């Protein structure tokens, strides 16, 4: 895209973080430069040229590859930190084909570095699929146990599937650490999440690079109604096919070979028992799973039957706005922003959906703790919470932890942490998560589950906002 303002950000970072750390030579180093470096720098220069910026002249440098690979991995970080650019950006710059091509190039480059950089043992595999397991939370999230053998969901049970963006080592200790860090207060209801609801988690191994995740996210944003990846189809076949049919066979291309149909009401009930919760780019993963479910289901049932059933699938997201004005599922989409967000945009919500962010964001001057918007499908709500840049959480040992969020609202601790004192956002998120996982749908997910002061206050406040004239996108 011509004049992409992020090109200047990438250009300056290349000078500062790569060339200044490389060795300048008095002659061309082109013959000694590895082909993988040439290829990536060529793609980077193509991005600069299409943005009307002169290309980087790197031929007289012995490029420090540790710095270059870190640069490739951190491109999204440079975008995140460019608040002046984010202020007036729109989607033609954040999610266009040139940006996608650059992230694809960075993804290919970091994989090509495997085993090639001295003293480095990173091993990236961008074809790595989901890690998926069932969680036993009966003794609390701090004592969770995981089971990656029994991963076929039961559509007759209530099911909650967490789609988390982290890329971690494939072991239970790491999973426990990251789930506790991100979700501990929201999953502490042992009756709901320890008995009534089967809980699963989908995430990626550490071998999956950030670059590959961003490429995947951009493709999902560009083609929200059709884009599905091979890994998504594999996960659907592993875990979700019983929601479509009790006896179904699907090939590797997603084609239904045979299936026994449910009646219409049973199909709807099955999807009423399926709830997704997602954070950040995990929302793009959850969205593609719903797309794959629709593509497979539509081969067995009519378009109307498929759509009506999938409307009962429910998604609760944080830090990622709806991908379409008419989603095939229903849900509540939370994010946080500063009341005065000049220079303090919630960067990822703004990058992924610049126009929707500006329409839905919390407005300075409001006396309410949130702004509620409803999407055109009338089934998806956007809840923009008033962000506090600094807040205090209480951990399971009753210790106070002061949090400063450098991403101005993106930290999931805003809504999943146990806040010191009353906090509308964390109370409302917890209520919606418990209600939706337990099978409630529509506005009923906002109704309080408990009769304590915090729950009553939150319920009354949300009821007042829902009864106001909604901001319809």
Keywords:
single chain, 473 residues, alpha/beta, ten-stranded mixed beta sheet, two-stranded antiparallel sheet, 18% strand, globular
What does this protein look like?
The protein has 473 residues and is an alpha/beta fold. It has 19 helices and 16 strands. It has helices spanning 6-17, 35-50, 65-73, 75-81, 83-87, 91-94, 97-112, 172-183, 190-196, 210-222, 230-240, 264-272, 282-297, 303-310, 347-352, 354-360, 413-416, 424-437, 453-467; strands at residues 23-24, 61-62, 131-136, 145-147, 158-168, 197-205, 248-250, 256-259, 274-279, 314-318, 330-337, 370-374, 380-386, 390-394, 400-404, 471-472. A hairpin with a 5-residue loop joins strand 14 and strand 15 (400-404). Helix 12 packs parallel to helix 14. It starts with 5 loop residues before the first helix and ends with a strand.
Number of extended strands: 16
Beta-strand percentage range: 15-25%
Taking the alpha carbons of the first and last residues, their distance comes to 27 Å
Structural class: alpha/beta
Radius of gyration: 23 Å
| Shape category | globular
Oligomer designation: single chain
Q: Helicity range of the residues? A: 40-55%
The number of distinct helices, counting runs of at least 4 residues, comes to: 19
- Main β-sheet, in a few words? 10 strands, mixed
Spans where pLDDT lies below 50 across 5 or more residues: none
Strand line-up of the largest beta sheet? 4-3-6-5-9-10-11-13-12-16
Q: Could you tell me the mean pLDDT?
A: 94
